[in-house]
Amino acid sequence: MAKPWATFGVDLHLEPTGGGVRRGLTDALREAVRTGRLAPGTRLPSSRALAADLGIARNTVADAYADLVAEGWLTARQGSGTRVSDRTIVPPTGAPLRPRAPGRPTHNLVPGTPDLASFPRAQWLKAVRRALATASYQALDYGDPRGRVELRTALAGYLSRARGVRADPEHILVCAGFSHGLRLLGAVLRARGARTVAVESYGLDVHWNLLAAAGLRTVPLPFDERGTDPGELTDQDAVLLTPAHQFPMGGTLHRDRRAAVVEWARRTGGLVVEDDYDGEFRYDRQPVGALQGLDPDHVVHAGTASKSLAPGLRLGWLVLPPGLMEEVLAAKGGIDSCGSLDQLTLAEFLVSGAYDRHVRAARLRYRRRRDALVAELARRAPRVHATGIAAGLHVVLRLPPGTEQSALRAAAWQGLAVHGLHRYQHPEATVERRDALVVGYGTPPDHAWSTALEALCAVLPE
């Protein structure tokens, strides 16, 4: 007795069309694999079972399978049957983005986060113990709204030595990361009657939104190969810049433009906010000094431990012009919003030299990753180019014109989290269209970096 259809093999829905049964079946299978309906690794029915399901000759199915194996769409191994090849899935144009599996992506190359697995837990724990052992009981009370004096003193020494900042502990305010600091500055500017803040054509919408929430309009400045062009700074009340390593484009603000920004601030009384988010990580030479060193009276230097250590610490700082501290304290509400123990621990970490040792080790780790990425691009995707200076935790990959969206679609279908450059463009910016991916090579842990790099190269145009 013949087996009934309902129990014969595995189900596979196909509708062969076109000229000839074999060609129609081949085209239908190819399309199912190409669009991802048949996921990589899926085992197909045997030729006998599929032939019975479709009511066609077994040899027709076997020939169609053989054609697709030769083209690389399928693999056939004795004992394991015929399976879909593990290859890049290119969804049809206009298809909705669907990750391969729900939940977290398989590979995360979104910029903005360091390798959290490399956080120096043992060294941090030692610093916690030393800080607790030496702290007075008053350190556990409500603190100075500017932050612990131990941390402000340690930061003044470190920033002067490592970043060229002209800092005094009395002019440093500890905050819960850069976004918190920017919210405080936005409130101060609005209270002063400010209306407009100039920003870079490429940046983070979360920062623009924080300024908008304070009642300030953001106006993008022109951008070219020398970075942000301050030539259109006129009656704006402030300007927000990433001069040491522009985010996300990755360049350094040209020295003539650095001088021009400071000159504008002196002439108009405008405020320059310098976001020095990853100034420690320069790989090919000594990092450029902080813009604040040119004029501490008109530049706010903003730094954070989010990239060098971990964003979960929620520790940042503002080095303020002398006349701005009281207004920022008023906006802060007269309270110390950061935990005293974490502040004392970071102070100990800085003073003991553990912070410098950690940064040097991290610098070597990230440089190796960037070098590996550039080398793989040259070997596997020569039409894709890494741009920007050798610095930071991310790189911009310039793509052939018109390929950004297709690369993002392929990445989403492969479970690869990565951002396109377009998402970082200010909505009012008038800049040349650049197709690119912004790749955060600092995000994966060490053990996952090689497979993340392999997944990235698989979705790039060859």
Précis, in short:
The protein contains 13 helices and 17 strands. The chain is α/β, with parallel strands linked by helices.
The number of helical elements comes to: 13
Q: Biggest sheet: strands, sense, closure?
A: 7 strands, mixed
Derived from helix and strand composition plus strand pairing, the structural class reads: alpha/beta
Radius of gyration: 28 Å
Strand order of the largest sheet: 4-12-11-10-9-5-6
* Morphology call: elongated
* SS strand fraction: 5-15%
Number of strands: 17
N-to-C series of helices and strands? HHHEEEHHEHEHEEEEHEEEHHHEEHEEEH
The stretches of 5 or more residues where confidence is low (pLDDT under 50) are 1-8
Helical amount: 25-40%
Span between termini: 54 Å
Produce the secondary structure layout:
Layout: H1 21-34, H2 47-54, H3 58-71, E1 74-77, E2 81-84, E3 107-108, H4 121-134, H5 149-163, E4 172-175, H6 178-191, E5 196-200, H7 205-213, E6 217-221, E7 223-224, E8 227-228, E9 238-241, H8 255-268, E10 271-275, E11 299-304, E12 316-319, H9 325-332, H10 340-352, H11 354-380, E13 385-387, E14 395-398, H12 404-413, E15 416-417, E16 419-420, E17 436-439, H13 446-459
Parallel strand pairs: 3-15, 5-6, 5-9, 9-10, 10-11
Antiparallel strand pairs: 1-2, 4-12, 7-8, 11-12, 13-14, 14-17, 16-17
